[in-house]
Design goal:
By secondary structure, the protein is mainly alpha-helical. About 65% of the residues lie in helices and about 5% in strands. It has a two-stranded antiparallel ribbon. α1 packs parallel to α4, α6 packs parallel to α8 and α7 packs antiparallel against α8. The longest helix is centred in the last third of the chain and has 19 residues. The radius of gyration is 20 Å and the shape is elongated.
Amino acid sequence: MSELDPNSRDRLVSVAKGAAGALPFVGSIVSEILDSVIPELRFERVVTFLKSLDDEVKKVDARLELFEANLRSEHGLDLFEEGVVQAARAVSEDRKARLARLVARALSEEELGYAQSRKLLNLYRELTDPEIVWLIFYSLNPVLGPGPHADWVKQHPEILEPISREMGAPREQHEQGAIQDSYKETLVRLGLTTQKSKVTQLTTLGRLLIRYIEDGANDHNES
C-alpha cells in the first residue's frame, strides 16, 4: 500500500495525533493543530519530533503556560508549523532533536520574538547535517591539550578530519576535500562564522543559533 494511499494516510495521521495526545506536556496543545498540517508530511518523522519537543518543554515546565499562549498565537503557530515541516524532511535523530530544542525555546520565551525565531528556523533549514557539525565544532572553547574539539572530531571523523589534497591523491579525495570546504564556506556565507587570518570564529548570529539548538550550550560554548 502506498504511503499516499488515503487509507494509509488516515492511519498515519491517527497515529501521529494519538502520539501527540499522549505527550504529557505538549500533547493537548498540539494535537488539535495537526489536522491542518500533517496530511502533506512524513508522519513518522513528525511523531519523533513531537516527542523531542515534549521532552524539551518538560525541561522548562514552569514556562508551559507561556509555551501554550505563544503556540496559540498566529506567529507562534507559524513557528510550530515550520518546525513540523522541517521535521518531516529531517532524516537524522540529532537534526530532529535540535529542531525540537529550537522550537521549544522559541515558544517558551516570555515575549515571543517571532522575527528572530523565524530567522533562526530559516537558517537551520538551510544547513546540512555536516554544516551543523562544523558550526558546533567552531562553538567549542579551545583548551590546551585534548579537549572538546578532539572529542567532537572523534565523534564525527568523516566530517571533521582534515582531507589532504596533495599531488597524486585520488580524485575522490580531492572531491571530498572540495565538499568539506563548501561546508565551511556555507557557514561564512550565512553569516554564522567569520574568518580572520585563517582562524574561523562564530559570529554573534552563529552563537545565537548555537544557544537555541545545543543542549547546555551556555555551559561550554564561546560567550
